[in-house]
Write a structure and sequence with these properties.
This protein is an alpha/beta fold. The protein has one domain (about 1-250): Glycoside hydrolase/deacetylase (TIM Barrel, Alpha-Beta Barrel), CATH 3.20.20. The protein has eight helices and ten strands. It has helices at about 20-25, 40-55, 80-100, 110-120, 120-135, 150-155, 190-200, 230-240, and strands at about 1-10, 30-35, 60, 105-110, 140-145, 160-165, 205, 210-215, 220, 245. The strands form two sheets. A seven-stranded parallel barrel has the order 1-2-3-4-5-6-9, surrounded by five helices. The chain has a two-stranded antiparallel sheet with strand order 7-8. The longest helix is centred in the middle third of the chain and has 21 residues, at about 80-100. The termini are close together. The relative contact order is 0.17.
Length: about 250
């Protein structure tokens, strides 16, 4: 049994430090690097690619809406064409740094509101999938399990990976509970470990209503801006490995 562990990183910019990237890079297997729109900047992107390479991580682009004030978690009305162009632009920026450091750009995972819209909106999902296909067709497209984004990626011929979240509540339809609602984010270590164990070992997740629904995940996400996230990832990984789960990047699975 194998699983990839990813985290959203490279979200600092200028004088502002966000997340625990240095510690996280020691315990994850895939790094989703912000591309300067919702977070990050050209200096942080360069350093993040360097650090990911040194830690032998799978490197992915993490494009989002141009919304640093809202951390990319606010929806912005855009046409599918604009979304396509926006994602192409961000992938291209990270591709350049990967080329400089002679590492592959292995995957693409949309961020925040863009990710959640693409999970349900077929037109947005198709625009993102087309952007990935046109820029780096060998990349793996990360998307919420059973989402429109995965469907669009499969339809166009991309490799796709179903993603589940360690620290987010699910509703009965398999969507993430909106962050504006109570208890949408898991904060206790024992709750996070329990959820990850259930997803990896039993292909199920308990919803906010207490129902168990099926979920087939290839990769588990931990949010890089979460409190004590590196320690939580480390302890969760130890629990999985004690159960003979191999934690490894997707391209090695």
């Amino acid at each position: 049994m194998r699983i990839d562990i990813n985290a959203d990183v490279g979200e600092s910019f200028g004088n502002y430090v966000i997340g625990q990237d240095f510690e996280l890079f020691k315990v994850i297997t895939s790094a989703n690097i912000a591309c300067g729109f919702h977070a990050g900047d050209f200096t942080v992107m360069n350093k993040s690619v360097q650090d990911a390479k040194e830690n032998h991580l799978s490197i992915g682009a993490h494009p989002g809406f141009p919304d640093k004030q809202g951390f990319g978690r606010r929806s912005i009305s855009m046409s599918p064409t604009e979304i396509y162009e926006m994602v192409v632009y961000q992938i291209g920026a990270l591709q350049a740094f990967c080329r400089i450091h002679d590492v592959p750009l292995s995957h693409v995972k949309p961020h925040g509101a863009l990710y959640n819209i693409a999970a349900k909106d077929a037109d947005v999902a198709k625009a993102i999938a087309q952007a990935v296909f046109d820029t780096i067709p060998s990349a793996i497209l990360f998307g919420l399990c059973n989402s429109e984004l995965l469907h669009a990626g499969n339809e166009i011929g991309l490799k796709t990976a179903g993603e589940a979240f360690a620290d987010r509540r699910y509703d009965d339809l398999g969507h993430l509970v909106d962050r504006s609602k109570p208890n949408a984010v898991l904060t206790k270590l024992e709750d996070i470990i329990k959820q990850v164990e259930h997803i990896v070992m039993h292909q199920q997740v308990e919803t906010a209503s207490g129902k168990l629904i099926p979920i087939q995940a290839d990769t588990i996400c931990f949010h890089g801006d979460g409190k004590n996230v590196a320690e939580i990832v480390q302890k969760t990984r130890e629990v999985l490995e004690a159960k003979n789960v191999k934690v490894t990047p997707l391209e090695l699975i």
